[in-house]
Specification:
Elements lengths: L4 H15 L4 H7 L3 E5 L6 E6 L2 E7 L4 H23 L5 H23 L2 H9 L4 H7 L4 H13 L19
Helix pairs in contact: 1-4, 2-3, 3-4, 4-7, 6-7
Amino acid sequence: MFIKTDDIVRKVQRLKEMTDSCDPFQIASDLNIMVIERNFEKQLGMYTKILSTPFIFLKNDLDDFTKRIVLLHEIGHHVLHGKILDRDDVKADDLTRASSKMELEANYFAAELSIPDEEILDLIKQQYSSPQIAQILTTNNNYIALKVELLNKKGHNLNRQEYSADFMNYIG
């Protein structure tokens, strides 16, 4: 059930080639995912399938920045975990135990999809800090930290950045 980061990077690359876009709304459309805003009290977003149709529900009062971050994350669930929801043999307990790992995988996916290698490497070379890079690239600082991890796995030797594993709970 768990996905290696190398496989996440490959899936993102295939998706970029297929959709020719990094815009999460365009990608969702290209993947025939229905994106619907709804009145969640706390939850920022949710991915599910209804009668084999993929849906992403977004909290309706999110600002554009947060909406984009959440949508990227939920698209990650679709691409990485969508087939799991189609299986009859997966139990709710299995999904609950795997939940934190699946959330991290979706965040790696979103970081890889939304942050081009060349752009972040150029900003690092110019000695911008992680928060500055996040601001320049209009993303979340935690995605910068995850992207740095992915770049290190691709052979770069960058300083590890700290990130909060549950940051999606606090960005809304």
